[in-house]
């Protein structure tokens, strides 16, 4: 009787593996897939079954990972955010690094690629429509140089999406991702006791729980061919200042926006920097329409706004 051949799992490469979202995604995929974790910040240990590498995508040795493993899919979550590094380092990582990653995906015949983008690419201004769908122009780069890397990353993904359809590229533009272990600016604001607010402004905002976002990514990787660009958001939104109230934050009004405002906010939140362009997102609403993603992938978020805000309320009470 012939020995039963051991079935091998498909292999997925996940960038940004040290981040909270990536680890939520890996936890959901490791049973069905062999996951290879990569991050330029640190080598994370996620178990003996998850090979982990600390390496920059732009480094020569990065291609060795493709040679060593039989990778069939890539989930690119390793986008450097504006509060982490300066504009030049973000451009090198987010644009040039992603360019190299996509070249390698083409060279090694990767069958599915997911790229995490952001709703910030639409830009924040007073003339935004009430609900922004995926066909809306990306005006962020016209409004601020600080978001050029985000828009360029999307342009790059678009080129590869249509030039190499076999890559099955899916670009996701989520609203504000919040929840446990999330260290972006919005999550830090909601978890802070004192929060600055621009007097006279309280734009509508959307929030998605980190576990729902992880489920959204898993839904894409488990789907067949649904390449394209999708907003990812719930159907609920809330005014920013109401969100702060529901998180038990003490609001500190700022009556004008002095040039030192970003530095004051970064000091309050203990960030390396608070990008000035984010101030516009606290003045003007950028509400995205996530209907296309929900209907295409059968996605239903589990966490309500009440559940999201109760996490931040309880976080403060435990301190």
Give an account of the 3D structure.
With 319 residues, the protein is of the alpha/beta class. The protein has a domain of 218 residues: Rossmann fold (3-Layer(aba) Sandwich), CATH 3.40.50. 35% of the residues lie in helices and 18% in strands. A seven-stranded parallel β-sheet has the order 3-2-1-4-5-6-11, sandwiched between helices. It has a two-stranded parallel sheet with strand order 7-10. Strands 8-13 form a two-stranded parallel sheet. It is globular. The model has no long low-confidence stretch (mean pLDDT 89).
Give a brief outline of the structure:
α1 crosses α7 and α3 packs parallel to α5. With about 325 residues, the protein is α/β, with parallel strands linked by helices.
Properties at a glance:
7-stranded parallel sheet, alpha/beta, 35% helix, Epimerase_deHydtase, 11 helices, single chain, 319 residues, Rossmann fold, two-stranded parallel sheet, globular, Nucleoside-diphosphate-sugar epimerase
């Amino acid at each position: 009787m012939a020995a039963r051949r051991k079935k091998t799992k498909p292999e997925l490469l996940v960038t940004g593996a040290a981040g909270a979202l990536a680890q939520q995604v890996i936890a959901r995929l490791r049973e069905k897939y062999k996951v290879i974790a990569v991050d330029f910040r640190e080598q994370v240990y996620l178990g003996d079954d998850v090979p982990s590498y600390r390496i920059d995508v732009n480094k020569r040795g990065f291609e060795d990972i493709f040679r060593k493993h039989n990778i069939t899919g890539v989930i690119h979550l390793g986008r450097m955010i504006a509060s982490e590094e300066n504009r030049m380092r973000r451009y090198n990582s987010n644009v040039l690094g992603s360019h190299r990653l996509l070249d390698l995906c083409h060279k090694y015949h990767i069958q599915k690629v997911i790229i995490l983008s952001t709703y910030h690419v639409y830009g924040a201004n007073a003339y935004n429509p009430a609900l922004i769908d995926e066909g809306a122009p990306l005006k962020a780069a016209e409004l601020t140089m600080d978001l050029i890397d985000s828009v360029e990353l999307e342009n790059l993904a678009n080129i590869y999406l249509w030039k190499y359809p076999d890559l099955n590229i899916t670009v996701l533009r989520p609203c504000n991702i919040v929840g446990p272990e999330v260290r972006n600016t919005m999550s830090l604001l909601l978890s802070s006791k004192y929060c600055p607010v621009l007097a006279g402004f309280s734009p509508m905002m959307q929030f998605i729980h980190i576990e729902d976002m992880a489920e959204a990514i898993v839904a894409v990787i488990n789907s067949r061919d649904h390449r394209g660009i999708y907003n990812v958001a719930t159907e609920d939104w809330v005014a920013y200042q109401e969100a702060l109230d529901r998180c038990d934050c003490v609001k500190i009004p700022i009556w004008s926006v002095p040039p030192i405002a970003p530095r004051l906010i970064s000091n309050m939140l203990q960030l390396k920097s608070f990008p000035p362009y984010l101030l516009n997102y606290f003045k003007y609403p950028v509400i995205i329409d996530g209907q296309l993603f929900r209907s295409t992938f059968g996605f239903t978020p589990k966490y309500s706004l009440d559940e999201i805000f109760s996490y931040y309320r309880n976080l403060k009470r435990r301190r």
